[in-house]
Amino acid sequence: MANKILVRGTNWIGDAVMTTPALMALRTGCPDAEIVLLTNPLVAPLFKYHPAIDRVLVYARKGKHRGIRGFFRMVLELRREKFDAALLLQNAIEAALLVFAARIPCRVGFPTDARRLLLSDPVGLTPADKTLHHTDYYLTLLRRLGFKAQDTSLCLHITHAEREWARTTLKSDNVIAVNPGAAYGSAKRWFPERFAAVADILAQRYGATILLTGGPGEREIGEDIAAFMQCDCINKVGKTDVRQMMALLAGSRLLITNDSGPMHVAAAFGVPIVAVFGPTDHTTTSPASEKVRIVRKGVECAPCLLRQCPTDHRCMKNITPDDVTAAAIEQLEKVDENSHR
């Protein structure tokens, strides 16, 4: 059994969260191994304090690992680590090239992206596997390696200090979070004025504090929603790091969101979710949680999986504030019902 394992993680926050059941299966199967995650600067903070991971190595392809020279700098860093095995959760050929060049003897992954010859142990992949929910897709890799990977529960961890910071920042236990961005592209984004309309209704009906969350590139969207709203809100769009975003979502009563990374973060903390889906496929990327309500309208061109809509964005236009409000009320009533049992 390998004593030192490198895991090449995925590059997006949502995908990374969906790999956590597979990572926990690896940890359970290799309790004494040192498990090191290699991922980018965006995803790396997610796994600070994670129970499946001993260390995180950052692969900064836009920084010190940029270009061919940076690639080989990363290769040399990995060679010095002397890993026994590499598990590739990322499907790109570059992941296989990296661990092959780093001379890691056991290189395991799906033979996607023409990388079969670079893997010492390619794991069979069927056409049906490509239609699995992403969480099950990553778990399938572990199962075919002989690991007991039955638990599909997402897993993230924040510290007591981070929870206290969120509680002090929010000053309320009755917080409804709104995540209006989506890093993949504008086609996944519902409209700011509609998010604002829903937020106002819920704030008034439940006396809730509205929290706006999102990344640095989404500041304008947050400002638009705050301007459209009649009620006050806490606008944290572009004003938090990843760890702070995790803590704020963990302290929320409900999240209303596009298909996005924070959606999966909230799911990992058991937060009820209303998720607006348009061009993406909810059967493969919806939150792996029983506390989720998907809002979508079937149109002939969806799911197209495009970053930008080439036509009239009908998959999103057809979703009304009433649709999302009704889903949110349903979720909040379930929360209240469960709390009184």
Write the layout of secondary structure elements.
Blueprint: E1 4-8, H1 13-18, H2 20-29, E2 34-39, E3 55-58, H3 67-81, E4 85-88, H4 93-101, E5 106-109, E6 121-122, H5 134-144, H6 160-170, E7 175-179, H7 192-206, E8 209-212, H8 219-228, E9 233-235, H9 242-250, E10 254-258, H10 261-268, E11 273-276, H11 282-285, E12 292-295, H12 314-317, H13 321-339
Helix pairs in contact: 2-5, 6-9, 7-8, 7-13
Write a short abstract of this structure.
Helix 4 (93-101) links the parallel strand 4 (85-88) and strand 5. This protein has helices at residues 13-18, 20-29, 67-81, 93-101, 134-144, 160-170, 192-206, 219-228, 242-250, 261-268, 282-285, 314-317, 321-339; strands at residues 4-8, 34-39, 55-58, 85-88, 106-109, 121-122, 175-179, 209-212, 233-235, 254-258, 273-276, 292-295. The protein is of the alpha/beta class and 341 residues long.
Task: Provide a descriptive summary of the structure in words.
With 341 residues, the chain is α/β, with parallel strands linked by helices. The chain has 2 domains: 4-144, Glycogen Phosphorylase B (Rossmann fold, 3-Layer(aba) Sandwich), CATH 3.40.50; 161-339, 3-Layer(aba) Sandwich (Rossmann fold), CATH 3.40.50.2000. It is 38% helix and 15% strand. The protein has 13 helices and 12 strands. The strands form 2 sheets. It has a 6-stranded parallel sheet, with helices on one face. A 6-stranded parallel sheet has the order 9-8-7-10-11-12, with helices on both faces. The longest helix is centred in the last third of the chain and has 19 residues, at 321-339. The protein is globular. It starts with a strand and ends with a helix. The mean pLDDT is 94.
